[in-house]
Amino acid sequence: MSPKICSQINNFSNEDFLVLNFAREQNLAITQENLTISSATKTSKPYTLQSLKALSLDTLLNKKKGGGGANRHYGFFRFDSKANNPKSPLNPWGYIRVKNEARTLRASLDSILPAIQRGVIGYNDCDDGSEEIILEFCQTYPSFIPIKYPYSVEIKNPKKEENKLYYYSNYILSFIPQGEWFIKLDMDHIYDAKKLFKSLYLLKKNTDILTLSRMDFYIQWEEVYIGKSVRGYYNRAGDQTLRCNLNCKYYERILSPKLQEWGDQILKGKPTKIQLEALQENYHSYEAKVEDSYSRVYRSELCHYHFPGIKKRREGIPQNVLPLKEFNDEAIGVEIVPKMLEKETILSLYSRFDLAR
Fold first, then answer.
1. pTM for this one?
2. Based on the domain organization, do 50 and 73 belong to the same domain?
3. Are residues 270 and 315 in the same domain?
4. C-alpha span between 39 and 47 (Å, rounded)
């Protein structure tokens, strides 16, 4: 990243770009620096954002040549012409799968816009309004493609291959061209698009992989708590990754009392004897991404907030949470910008969700 591009990125906020995108949705001219505007969605709860540099950003972007086409939305990628290249890691596809996430969906999708230019949004078995939100979003931002999976996805004892999660994952993945980059994104997260986009510069070879670090946040009575994963309260390498599509595919992972070792759980090709025995009994079918070859794995700074407790199947707070004010880690000030852990910041992001659903 050149010093000029770095300076331009650092000079503007996620909200500056989102406000411009919201104004564009509503055909509103940018005439003032300090601008507060509401999102224009009709399928989810609108929320309001403020930009302190709306006019400066709009003026700068309008001066730039080759802005990427009239249909491209606003984002940090507009500062770097290399992000116009569909083969560049600066221009990855968002790889998104959705099932009944209407509470968080639109706010999460909006949050990726200043970093991600395009994407595929697969969805299955939605009956909570998620489909309507996806179709509205893709109509507004046509570089995102809605893909309705034609089969039901079953985790426990799926009837057919088409009903298995790994099969569904590969179906959605098939819409991403070979040789182009994609990043797995989940829709119960709010992404810090500036930090996410800057992390894309870490990738040098098409065999490199970027993993996104994350934290899990729970909210109860206006108090913020941090969830604990197997990696601790700060998950330094989560399951959201950026990689180049070099014949990538997911494998089936079989969870059964008969299969205790990771290697036994992954079904690649013809099932082994013990796998066949597990498939004849009660089992759960998941997905697994097995890395066949890669040069180097990079890890991002903290660049997104995970709110797992909002999904109805996960409502409530686990017993092992830690109050936000008690969290202390050597990563603070190094990998974690302190402002990201301010209570007011987290509650402000949380307020964007459509929790009345």
1. 0.94
2. yes
3. no
4. 6
